[in-house]
Amino acid sequence: MSIPTPKPGLVIRYSFLWSSEHRQGAVEGSKDRPCAIVVAAPRDEHGHIRTIVAPNTHSAPDDPETSLEIPAGICRSLGLDDGRHWLRFDELNSFLWPGYDLRPRSDGRYDYGMLPRGLFETLRKGILEAQRQKAGRIINRQD
Fold this sequence. Notes:
The structure is a single chain. This protein is an alpha+beta fold. The protein has one domain. The protein contains three helices and eight strands. Strands 1, 2, 3, 4, 5, 6, 7 and 8 form an eight-stranded mixed β-sheet that branches. β2 and β3 (49-57) form a beta hairpin.
């Protein structure tokens, strides 16, 4: 399958690097996971696209203000498992598309589909608030 065009709201399979892993010296995530693209912006005249993703996790947040639970029906439409899923506001990765950490799913696709507009807007607002409060961490993976 071909690599999709990155756009905000697209959920991709990605080797997400948590800030705690990064602090311990890791350069690659320990697990491939669904991640929602929140920014996909042209970076230069060569067509590189700066991409920022928010991770999806099964772990319930310690602080509910740091995450957004994905409704079960949306999880089903994306083909995610039956567990509960949260998108994090305070943990992000930044990279140049497609980067080394975009991973194919077992069916060869690199994406799960699009988040509904309303859910994406809630995610976007949560991320902006985390950044405003200086509570958000963005790990730069493009080097």
